[in-house]
Write a structure and sequence with these properties.
The complex is a heterodimer. By secondary structure, chain A is mainly α. Chain A has two domains: about 1-75, no CATH class; about 90-315, MetI-like fold (Orthogonal Bundle). Helix content of chain A is about 80%, strand content about 0%. Chain B is α/β, with parallel strands linked by helices. Chain B folds into two domains: about 1-225, Rossmann fold, CATH 3.40.50.300; about 240-330, no CATH class. Chain B is built from twelve helices and twelve strands. In chain B, a hairpin with a 2-residue loop joins strand 4 and strand 5. In chain B, about 45% of the residues are buried. Classes of the chains: A mainly alpha, B alpha/beta. The interface of A and B includes residues 220 and 314 of A.
């Protein structure tokens, strides 16, 4: 298990290297002179030249890349062109809301989809199952922004239960933090609930008539335990893979949700920086998001080995 | 101890109603071993699963008959009683040891689950019991093996573990549904030896389901031959082998390769396919494949008739007629 963990952790290095090349080239693949784009069309040639110097755009690209990479490895993602703040600082001050949103969403996903899937599987011979299949399809198909607007109109405006927008840091009270995040987190979760519940249901139905469940039933184990222990433990393996992709996908979803609910998170930062053509921040945020993606997948892989003993030893 | 009366089990499939078990009756006394023999699709597995009502419902239904276990009808038991009986009084082992253990749980956990389902034991006592059971079925180094996962065991070892699980509550009846089919021949022999020793040691009654007459030859007291959901011959093991009274049984026996067969004797195989149970043939189910078929066989499905003490067979031919016919076929 230790060897597997170490191997799996080391494999992150080449992935992150490739990711950093792509993020770096982002600036260089954009047509035109980045300094020009950043400063706008009316900029004076001196200002452009100065920014070119500041961004190191006069060096060959590989020199620029390694200079940049050297900085990144030491934790320096550069300085925002717009606010002159260090990019790392910007990311960390904006990550709190995004992280809160993701965690709360994930909680929604797990707390709703797992019992839902188990319920559906235990009632699989009733009308509930086809009903659920359609409902989950609906959940997956509904556009997030549309649902968000609908919920804001319903639960924020018509019946004002929840705030329409805004964010409160958890330091200013758990209650108001939760109160501001419930609606956006739920919107973010709803699509994934459909996917995870469906995935778990399918995996559970797949193993519900496997030979080992027959052995369990022949032991005299009650049907509830057959489902909750034997079937669930096996169905968790494929579901975890999807859950990993889901968590990573939440990060993408926050970009839309943060904009709609004006939550000052990473997504907002990214959108604002794109509008301002603040390339160092864009690079920094994209690299950060990519790093989270890779990290989540690493965790899933390690979890996978924990859930499925066959993976640990069969190498 | 076990009495099956006129049992019918139907499977409702999209293609139509399959009469998988079609009026089966037999008795089993405590400590006795019976073998149920038949081809794939003869209904023997469905019959075996019926005995603890383990067939998935749907598609399975039990429209007629009763299964009396110590006087209680299993088919009308409530779920609670059924559970308290499964694994406790009647235990089962299955055909495929590779997939019959849960791949994500340790052997020890699966064994302890079987023990604690029916016995109020502390974790420690259950653990001790589990080690005893593993020793009993011939797993070396049981303490360490408790911590292993199924994929770390060979097929034969897994079947031993499954037998240990089945024996956890010292059942009165063990149903073995083709327990050796997925194993290679030397391992098969070991598993059969193990079942035999269990039976001698604990007096467990065994129902052995198999397609291989060789497997039950030196294990079973009685053999039931199944064809198309019906019992077509039922007799003591010796009578099945030496006083065969039903053409299907005879064909099965003739299709086993034997070392003592004469050089000129040809190995027989049974022509054709087992009948389609959605739309079984008119008359005797076996007549399309029977070397002795005659006009009378098209008319009706013959009921089981007495051929000797405790020997039943379903054929229009009487025993002397059948003996004469056999000679004719062998000569030709």
């Amino acid at each position: 298990m230790l060897g597997y963990t170490i191997r799996r952790c080391l494999s992150v290095i080449p992935v992150m290297f490739v990711v950093s090349i792509i993020v770096f080239l982002l600036v260089h693949l954009t047509p035109g002179n980045p300094a020009h784009i950043i400063l706008g069309e009316d900029a004076s040639p001196e200002a452009v030249a100065q920014l070119e110097e500041q961004l190191g755009l006069n060096d060959p690209w590989y020199i620029q890349f390694f200079d940049w990479l050297k900085q990144v490895v030491t934790g320096d993602l550069g300085t925002s062109v717009f606010s002159a703040q260090p990019v790392t600082e910007l990311i960390f001050s904006n990550f709190g809301p995004t992280f809160s949103l993701m965690i709360l969403s994930l909680l929604f996903i797990l707390v709703i989809s797992i019992p839902l899937a188990i319920l559906i599987v235990s009632l699989r011979k009733t009308i509930l199952d086809p009903l659920f299949t359609s409902a989950s399809l609906l959940g997956v198909s509904v556009p997030e922004f549309w649902l968000a607007i609908l919920l804001v109109l319903g639960l924020g405006v018509s019946i004002p239960i929840f705030p329409v927008a805004g964010y409160m840091p958890i330091a200013e009270g758990f209650g108001s933090w939760l109160y501001h995040l419930l609606l956006p987190a739920f919107v973010l979760a709803i699509l994934e609930i459909g996917i995870i519940a469906r995935m778990l249901r399918d995996s559970m139905l797949d193993s519900v008539n496997q030979d080992y469940t027959k052995t369990a039933r022949a032991k005299g184990v009650r049907e509830r335990d057959v489902l909750m222990k034997h079937v669930f433990a096996n169905a968790l393996i494929p579901t975890t893979t999807v859950l990993g992709a889901t968590v990573a996908g939440l990060l993408g979803g926050t970009v839309i949700i943060e904009t709609l609910f004006t939550i000052p998170g990473i997504g907002q930062l990214l959108i604002d920086s794109i509008h301002r053509r603040d390339y160092p921040v864009i690079q920094g945020v994209v690299l950060f998001i990519a790093a989270i993606y890779v990290l989540v997948n690493l965790i899933v892989d390690l979890l996978y080995a924990f859930l499925d003993p066959r993976i640990r030893y069969d190498e | 101890m076990l009495e099956v009366n006129d049992l019918h089990v139907h499977l409702e499939t999209p293609a139509g109603l399959v009469k998988a078990v079609d009026g089966v009756s037999f008795r089993l006394e405590a400590g006795q071993t019976i073998g149920i023999v038949g081809e794939s699709g003869s209904g023997k597995s469905v019959l075996a699963h019926s005995l603890t009502k383990l067939n998935p419902e749907p598609p399975a239904t039990y429209p007629k008959g009763e299964i009396l276990f110590q006087g209680e009808n299993i088919l009308t038991m409530n779920k609670r009683r059924l559970r308290s009986m499964r694994g406790n009084e009647i235990a089962m082992i299955f055909q495929d040891p590779m997939s019959s253990l849960n791949p994500v749980f340790k052997i020890g956990k699966q064994l302890i689950e079987a023990i604690q389902t029916h016995q109020k034991l502390s974790k420690k006592e259950a653990q001790q019991k589990a080690i005893e059971l593993l020793t009993d079925v011939g797993i070396p180094d049981p303490e360490r093996r408790m911590q292993s996962y199924p994929h770390q065991f060979s097929g034969g070892m897994r079947q031993r573990v499954l037998i240990a699980i089945a024996l956890a509550a010292r059942p009165k009846l063990l149903i073995a549904d083709e327990p050796t089919t997925a194993l290679d021949v030397t391992i098969q022999a070991q598993i059969i030896e193990l079942l035999k020793s269990i039976q001698q040691k604990y007096g467990t009654a065994i129902i052995m389901i198999t397609h291989d007459l060789g497997v039950v030859a030196n294990l079973a007291d009685r053999i039931l031959v199944m064809y198309a959901g019906k019992i077509v011959e039922s007799a003591s093991t010796a009578d099945i082998f030496y006083k065969t009274a039903m053409p299907y049984t005879w064909s099965l026996l003739r299709s086993i390769p034997r070392l003592d067969a004469g050089a000129s004797e040809r190995l027989l195989h049974i022509e054709g396919q087992p009948p389609n149970l959605i739309d079984p043939p008119q008359g005797c189910n076996f007549h399309p494949r029977c070397p002795f078929a005659r006009d009378a066989c098209l008319q009706e499905n013959p009921p089981l008739g007495e051929r000797g003490p405790g020997h039943l067979a379903a054929c229009v031919l009487s025993q002397p007629e059948f003996e004469k016919e056999k000679k004719g076929v062998l000569l030709s």
